[in-house]
Amino acid sequence: MSPAAAQARVPCVKLDRIMRWVPWIFAWLSIALSPAQVLQWTREQMIQYTAENPFERFDDGRPKVPEALLDRLRQLSAEDCWGVLRAAGYNNQFEGNWRILHPGKKLVGRAVTAVFMPERPDLESIIRAQFKARNFPSRGHQYVLDLLQEGDVLVVDCWGKVPGFVGNNLATYLMVATKSGGLVVDGGIRDLEDLQNVDVQIYYRFAHPDPVSNFTLVGVNVPVRIGNATVLPGDVVLGDREGVTFIPPSLVQKVVDNAIEIQIHDEWTQMKLRTGKYKSHEIYSRPRDPELIREYEEYRQRRYRELGLEPPKR
Predict the structure, then answer these.
(1) Burial class (CB in 10 A: 0-12, 13-18, 19+), 135
(2) The model's pTM
(3) What separation in angstroms does the CA of 310 have from each of 252, 257, 302, 307?
(4) In this structure, are residues 202 and 154 in contact, taking their beta carbons and an 8 Å threshold?
(5) Domains, the chain, ranges and CATH?
(6) Per residue in 142-178, pLDDT tens?
(7) Which of 62, 112, 204, 277 has a 20 to 30 Å separation from 41 between CA atoms?
(8) Does residue 109 have a pLDDT over 70?
């Protein structure tokens, strides 16, 4: 290529790079210019950005994973989900290093997301005026709490700093509104002593007696970052002792089906290892001896049928 041709090509390359961002720019402008109080996807945008959802939707377009699948997920752990997520390229769907209000109690539900930022007076005054225009008397944290319904898990980005997002009173409301749901907050809570008596699961970063302060709600039911995880509204939240996994609706059925295979494999593996007859490599991660392979396959077939399921072909 001649120098002149190369120079002529540079603006085209730059224009091409700019044009790649145009759809995203218009998408976010359409959110920002909408009449909503804060940045919030319309129903059409929710459907567009969660297009792989195979289930029904709420009125606002948020994916509605069936309760039957949520019940099955309550029997699973992070490890049961992770292989399917990784294989599908979803490498940023887990966040650990939490404090857990009720250790040993699973948290499962459909994500409602919220984004908060450090308070800035001019922005905060506009958002408070919008709340006032809708006759909403409180601040952003109660606005998102009042959106919750049965089976929801509120997933909140408070950049790890905001204290006291809920205390005993608002946690009681959270328990009543979501029933089997709860809260994942990248920030703090308060009234920790009294919260032990509130039957709602909360994953949080720290506890402090300060009430919630120095924050502004800027987004509801939009993508949020929770540590190293990216969360969309309608994702299924699974919290266990290890941390919190966020499962796209399109993968929930596959996660549940694959987990059965994992659990049967682990049952058989641990049963054989407990006999003390084998070295670890003879059994885990899979047996190599033909007789053990046959024994495992018979066990697998039997366990599927005991669960009322047809064993998948291998």
Answers:
(1) exposed
(2) 0.83
(3) 19, 11, 10, 9
(4) no
(5) 49-248 (3.50.30.40), 253-306 (no CATH)
(6) 999 999 999 999 999 999 999 999 999 999 999 999 9
(7) 204
(8) yes
